[in-house]
Write a structure and sequence with these properties.
The protein is mainly β. The chain is about 10% helix and about 40% strand. A 5-stranded antiparallel beta sheet has the order 1-6-7-8-5. The longest helix is centred in the last third of the chain and has 9 residues.
Length: about 150
């Protein structure tokens, strides 16, 4: 058996979006979520971002509709926010997790599918907490508010 390598503690860093940093439980509201394994493991999330929960609301809007697409998703967990709890290291509503133990375990277990290209993203919404291991993501804001 291989000796276990000591990993540093996971570090959560906020992802800077076109609206700056998304902060607080009320920042992200999901209207729909669709995972398509036939599209290369694509996860598409559609919802609303609360304009009062962002650090750069230059348009002064109350709500921003968005589509968030993750590509080449290799792992996904979705937990109801009250079940997940409020601890865990996150520093914003949308973080990248460095030194992720979950990612490291999956790389060691599935080295042909999960590789160093994959990143651990942590998304906290009003209702749910998602941990996503994917190659990339794209966030597109709608030009019109939806709420």
């Amino acid at each position: 058996m291989k000796p276990q390598k000591h990993l540093p503690e996971p570090v959560y860093k906020p992802i800077h979006t076109p609206l700056g940093i998304l902060q607080g439980r009320d920042a992200i509201h999901i209207d729909g979520l669709h995972y398509d394994p036939q599209a290369g493991g694509q996860l598409r999330i559609v919802g609303q971002i609360d304009g009062s929960a962002v650090t750069d609301n230059s348009e002064g809007r109350d709500w921003y509709g968005f589509t968030l697409v993750f590509e080449d998703v290799q792992a996904l967990t979705l937990t109801q926010v009250d079940t997940y709890g409020y601890a865990g290291g996150s520093v914003s509503s949308f973080d990248q997790v460095f030194h992720s133990r979950w990612r490291n375990e999956l790389i060691n277990k599935n080295s042909t599918t999960v590789t160093g290209r994959h990143t651990h993203y942590h998304l906290r919404t009003y209702d749910d907490v998602l941990d996503i291991l994917s190659e990339s993501f794209a966030l597109v804001l709608d030009s019109e508010k939806r709420k």
